[in-house]
Amino acid sequence: MKPWISSLLQRLRGLALPLAGRGPQDRAAPVNGRPVVQGSRPRDLGSLAAPLAQPLIKLLSWRPNLPGGLRPWITLASLGFVLAALLANGRQLLRIGLDPQGWLWLLLGVGLSLLSVVVNGLAWSTLLRWLGQRPLAEKPVAHYMVTNLRKFLPGGIWHLAARVQALRLGTAGLAQPVSTATALAAVLLDPLLAATAALALASLGGWQGGLGLLFLLPLGLLNPRWLQPLLARLERRKARDLHLDGPGIDGPGLDGSLLEGPLLTGPSQQDPSGSGLGASAPLGTPQLPGYPWQPLLAEAAFVLLRFAGFACCVWAFDLQLSLGWLTWLAGFALAWTVGLVVPGAPGGLGVFEAVLLLRLGGLLPAAPLLAVALSYRLMATLADLLAALLADLDSRASQTGPGIASQ
Question: What are the CA-CA distances from residue 264 to residues 95, 232, 284 (Å)?
């Protein structure tokens, strides 16, 4: 028998013994018309439920003790699922070909995916402006595009580390450097808003067995009353992921330098909202100015452009009539969101494809759906490479331009 089950049974027995198996001599005079057992005191509902809470908390907080942690196992499981699908549908995949029109659709998809990266950088700049910062023209967009490639490195956190470092050092295209707490808030809100926007778009697919309503719930969490304490908790967790110990930062930067300075200044306050998320934002964490409508809409535009690139893959393999476009959008948005938030999968590699196959596999043949997923992966990766290359070339040209003009 599991230890927590034994503990639960013992607590139940302990509650039952004072109330049963006692004779009249064990009972005292009634209080308020109710008999009270000697040696005990009246119990309210909270005190009766308290002994049962601990085993449930232990059960819910259980984490598997896997070698290397959970992250690499998630990636291996997702890649294994996709590999098994490839092996099972290899012959059908080899029979699928592309005509010249299909290749044109894929080329258009690369262009739309490249445009989505630019819009993602603009959403990042909009978020920084919403947080009270002053972006300098297109420089934050270019920095975002350059650091976007680092998401494919093992661990999936190095693009975030690069942005935190650049924001603190003043090299991210802002008028002045920002505190570490503000930098962490910016890099955490970006994927949080993108995931929320994607799930809101996924709700357009209809009821979906109740998922359509569930997808709208994150929109309520963006209310500052709930988002402020949630952001404070995410900051502390991300600080641990980046090996930022204690009240200061002592972790290696991407160029070998150290990220130094106070992570969160000032004592934390108790949560006044009663949200149950723990302490509210520390004094060093920027106070959110309101509901993030502007950056949320910008992130929604980014996700829609990503889906437009995915839709080009659907057209390339002549699957546009197999499902309604809102169903395609719901399946894509869910798979993209899971690939974004699942830890340990660089760039959502394997996770996106696995979720897409699980979500839409019952509605379409596996082979053409797998062809769409793999072609989108290659197309989106190529667009990320082109975006980083173009942003780097533009940055180099802007640095050497004045010197050439002066000669």
Answer: 57, 9, 5
The dihedral of CA 268, 274, 277, 281: what is its sign? negative
Find residue 135's DSSP bridge partners.
Answer: 174
Map 288-328 to HEC letters: CCCCCHHHHHHHHHHHHHHHHHHHHHHHHCCCCCCCCHHHH
For residue 248, what are the β-bridge partners?
262
Torsion of CA 275, 278, 280, 285, to 10 degrees: -130
- Determine contact, residues 146/165, Cβ cutoff 8 Å: no
Q: Long-range CB contacts (< 8 A, 24+ apart) of 120-123?
A: 120/144, 120/148, 120/194, 120/299, 120/302, 121/145, 122/298, 123/190, 123/193, 123/194, 123/295, 123/298, 123/299, 123/301, 123/302
- What tokens were used for 305? 């452009």
Using 50 as the pLDDT threshold, list the residues of the chain that sit under it: 2, 4, 8-9, 12-13, 15-53, 56-61, 245-283, 402-407
| pLDDT, tens digit (0-9, with 9 covering 90-100), for 101-154 | 999 999 999 999 999 999 999 999 999 999 999 999 889 999 999 999 999 887
d(CA 329, CA 332): 5
- pLDDT tens per residue, range 318-348: 999 999 999 999 999 999 999 999 876 778 8
- Contact in structure between 126 and 295 (CB atoms under 8 Å): yes
* Contact yes or no for 148/385 (Cβ under 8 A): no
Measured in whole angstroms, how far is the alpha carbon of residue 306 from the centre of its chain?
17
Specify the pTM: 0.76
